[in-house]
Amino acid sequence: MNVTPSSRAKTELAEIVPGNRYDALAELSALMHTAGSLRVRRGADEAVLMTDNPALPALVSGLALTLLLPAPVIKKGKHTEIAFLGGASLLLSLGILGETDGALTSIDGVLPSLVRGDSEKRCYLRGAFLGGGYLSLGKNNHMEFAFSGEVLRDDVAELLGSAVEGAGRGTRGDKYTLYFKSKERISDALVYMGATKAALAVQKEIVDSYMGRRAAAAQNCDVANIDRAVEAAVRQTEAISYIDARVGLESLDEKLATTAHLRASSPEMSMGELAEMLGVSKSCVSHRLARLEAYAERLKRTSEEYK
What we know:
Layout: H1 5-14, H2 21-35, E1 36-41, E2 44-51, H3 56-66, E3 73-76, E4 80-85, H4 87-93, E5 97-100, E6 103-106, H5 118-132, E7 133-136, E8 142-147, H6 150-161, E9 168-172, E10 175-180, H7 183-193, H8 196-213, H9 223-246, H10 254-265, H11 271-278, H12 282-305
Antiparallel strand pairs: 1-2, 2-4, 3-4, 5-6, 7-8, 8-10, 9-10
Helix pairs in contact: 1-8, 2-3, 2-5, 7-8, 8-9, 9-10, 9-12, 10-12, 11-12
């Protein structure tokens, strides 16, 4: 199988299984709304997902388990089919279908009750990308979410805009799309959804590009020092993303939270540039970032102890 930036990001996202029913409901709803269909055969109705992502069946099974749904039937062929019996009932519970005077109706957008909290918004966006997303890096940087309807596209744009600004809107064939062309925005969106490894690959490209532009003025720069700086930035953004996913950056004190937001949004910045932006010394920035890394490690140990 050809490993592309898109497949790499989707595999990483599919390996994240929400731990509560509200998050699971949001993610499964987005998956079904972007990539699912209702099929009726031999008198039975099924909600069906078709996928080429080898990690998706395990995710959907995990979502079903969290929601106390019957396990889906998985059939592997040229494409993998994931099917739930009682499809109409499932789509009603996921806010994709409604019922008026005993007749089923289509719900065009995202039910507000599905995405009340930040965690549910992240899960909905993750499901939307897994179901109808695409990522390309290189000469043409492009991250896209595709939807069958304009209302759904615009509702998801609002969810995404609360965390990552600057998404473009367009159409492609019969699809309505949201897209990013900027590596920085693509990285931010990946981090928000939880694809930290994919985001780090984008951030490394940003750093490499930045260093390339400055190569002529930095011919005598120590390569080992650059590598260490990049590795440190990767560790720091990974730690910040983990803290954000576990307890939220708003749980930090104001100085740490400000530093965390700036580092996460500007992985290419040097320690001196961060210090200048924050109005403090480089040693102060270094101390704060070390505290963030140490806090992330404590959270990970606590998580392991309770498994």
